[in-house]
Amino acid sequence: MNNDRLLTQGKPFPTLLRFSVPFLLANILQACYGASDLFMVGRFSDSIGVSAVATGGQVMQTITGLSIGLTAGGTVLIGRYFGARQRHNIAHAVKTMVVVFSMLSLLLTTITILFLGPICSLMRVPVQAAEITRQYLFICACGILFIVGYNVISGILRGLGDSRTPLILITVACIINVSTDLLFVGVLRMGAPGAAISTVLAQAASLLLAVIYLFVKGHLRQYRRSAPCFRLYAAKDMLASGLPIALQEGLVNVSFLILTAMVNSMGLIASASVGVVEKLIVFSMLPTTAFSAALSAMTAQHYGAGLMARARRCLHLAIGLSLVFGFACLTLAQWRPSALIGLFTSDIEIIAQGTLYLRSYSLDCVLVCFVFCINAFLSGSGHSLFPLIHSLAATFLVRIPFSYWLIHTKAPSMFLIGFAAPAASFLSVLLCQGFLDKHYPKERNLSKNSTLHFHRFRMG
What we know:
Number of helices: 20
Order of helices and strands: HHHHHHHHHHHHHHHHHHHH
Radius of gyration: 21 Å
Helix content: over 70%
Strand content: under 5%
């Protein structure tokens, strides 16, 4: 494969930066799906449409996060095999990944469509927005196959060191999404359902382009000649790496869903304001997400090659780069919060409530720089269970109880509710640092530990 690239060679900083930038740009464009929907509906519809897209978007973000987390297990596994130069195992992992996630996408689609009513009830969707939210979710659910398929192909390519091709594919898809949003929402005034149709069309285009790319480059022929189509050990290793990542990602999104459901009980304005702020937070964390995702793939290749001392240096670099953007986003959120909220809606009440929520929530932009990068390092180096453990603790011991208590006070304040997320992340930072100190106490021990892990991986 011409684009296959070892990430264990060259100086760590330029290698990490070169590999991360396409991740970042792809993440920005992928986030534009939901942002474009919310922006267009906010401009050409009313608060009911904004609430529907905000709530429905949270549900779809949870499903997308689950697929990204699970496919990250395939990226890690392929990266380890690629770093260890085990080409035959790469072929087995690729074909197994396709089989497993094809079945998963069909399951997720079926569950979402069958439980549309209960989902809206659990989310406490405001009565005025209930029917529009169901329509939005139904249409989006029809595109789950395309979401999972794109993430599978992107995961395969990134495990092989190619982060540029997924960027090109998502760029074209994003252009399609924005163009069709203008048509369905801006011109035809179809509101939230029109935004959903636009998103599904763009997702289908991204998968189609990915398959065409694999065919043109000869990747499909290469893997078709490698038998068998499914290997149980590959599926087991893939899920062992990906399931904790997916559950951890799922916990973050579940906490968003629970918070959204609780805030929805406060009324339409609170519901819409939280939805807008969540979109802004997603954008603000895209650089950190990109650096951590790149770090995970790099760590996997370093793990396979027995170079964990170098991987630890990459971890420090990823945290440093993330903090540059984290502090920039925090500063902007404190300086011009109303202007940021105003990008998505002109409703004065939504802007006022969203501003309060954003000021406190934005502290999380700095704390997640540590959490995301350490999680990526641990997942890529075979410690994928711990990120799930600390996420469980942060979610169910801090964020959800704290949010519930603040929302059910006599005079709930959006400003105080916003502190729940950074409080949870702060606990995760403390737990992550303790885990690193225990398992990677001294830099000079890393080479010894790396050799031991490398031999175990080779023998396994």
